[in-house]
Design brief:
It is globular, with a radius of gyration of 22 Å. Strand 16 and strand 17 form a beta hairpin. Helix content is 39%, strand content 20%. The strands form 8 sheets. The protein has a 7-stranded mixed beta sheet, sandwiched between helices. It has a 5-stranded mixed beta sheet with strand order 3-2-1-5-15, with helices on both faces. The protein is of the alpha+beta class. Helix 13 (325-333) crosses helix 14 (373-397). It is built from 18 helices and 24 strands. The chain folds into 2 domains: 3-241, 2-Layer Sandwich (Nucleotidyltransferase, domain 5), CATH 3.30.420.40; 250-434 and 472-505, ATPase, nucleotide binding domain (Nucleotidyltransferase, domain 5, 2-Layer Sandwich), CATH 3.30.420.40.
Amino acid sequence: MALLLGLDIGTTSTIGIVIDDQGATLAIESRPVSFHSDHANWAEEEPEQWWANVGEICRALLARTGIAPGDIAGIGVTGMLPAVILLDAEGRPLRRSIQQNDARAMAELEQYRAAMPESHFLALTGTGYSQQLVGPKLMWLRRHEPGVFARATQVLGASDYITYRLSGSLQVEHNWALESGFVNIATGAYDERLMTLAGIDTGLLPPICRSHGIVGAVTAEAARHTGLRAGIPIVAGCADHVASAFVCGAARNGDLVIKFGGAGDILLSSDKPVADRRLFVDYHIVPGLYFPNGCMAASGTFLNWIVANWAGGEREAAHKAGLSIHQWLDRKAAEVPAATDLLFLPYVLGEKTPLMDPHARGTLVGLGLHHDLRHVWRAALEGVVFGFRHHVDVFAECGLAVTQVFAADGGAASDLWLQIAADAIGRPVARIDRHPGSCLGAAFVAGMGLGVLKDWGEISRYVARGRVFTPDSANAAALDAKYALWRDTYRRLQSLYPALGRLAG
């Protein structure tokens, strides 16, 4: 029996898992991650915290399972993308990572627009201009932190950084490369025209590797840090949202996965790529398939902000009820009907897909003295779901049908949130139980890369589907009306947001 280790470098936590090749999960460990937003639209994390977490997690997994360090057959790493990490000549991070939902490089993005028509960029990369692109962020660094940028020798993503720390091998997995905006989707290789657009030398970017390709092995230094045996093979890894969707079983046309994480991911399995400026496109875990997808800049992060800043007075009541603060707020919000007069736009970090608007702001509309935190919390849950529904509308406009809907990740534990999703989207939503997240996908990819696992369909042995939430017709009608107003609110305020941003300098 072979054992496999998966690591997930997530937005809010680092997670590790050990599975065997028979469908069993032996143990899971996690450690929190600190999020930094020192200025408006900034989103940063500490790569060294990820690495510290990996060391703690690996040692904890070995201790919990009782397995020997040499019993692990292979390792895969997944993470949010495309985060931006600059390494110096010694391979050390020069600064905090700039996260995928960071929207500071708005001026640089406008330089992109002026230098290359978006239609041309879309044809080359399969995606349009957005705050997520790596090039504008590198341009921002060159302009605002020239001393730091001048010392940079490599740029890579979150999972790639951990793979590097484990193996000493520098590369980026193919979805980080694709979403960076430097890759020609037709060739799968860096394109000189795209590098020139950002003024970036090709030597700054590591080679591209497919998810299940073996890139190295655990070094002696990494073995001392993690407690693992030196020499364990490591694969290139994969994008967290892609891994999560794959684990949910999204492998056929029309299979839709909504990922209720720190950021909000929504992925539709397809046998062809779709080029639309409102969407991203990624390679599927399964060779030959694609994942047209979207990512909202803040979903769980948005809700956590509300908890941290507005819900302090509810913590004692939640504790007395034996509930987490999120569960308590769900219980209270469930007392509020869908037909309320409060809207919440969740654009607290700007918005990526489908708006591609870094100027957008979180907006609470309709607030009155008859409202309380229950109404605000429900409106926030609805606002995130409306963002997902907006993506479903875009998929339909692209000629992509949705057949099945699956919900995964931390926020999917909320019955209220999933019922709202079913009501708003108008389709049954199946919760994926026994889904530890993207770390499982990373471990499975390692198994496929090593040949320990033989068929991509074997992933079904590790996952169980849970409750199915069926749309309530009365709530669906109320949410239809609110959704129309929610869409209209953004359209009315779109031109106002940049002016608000200028007030802050």
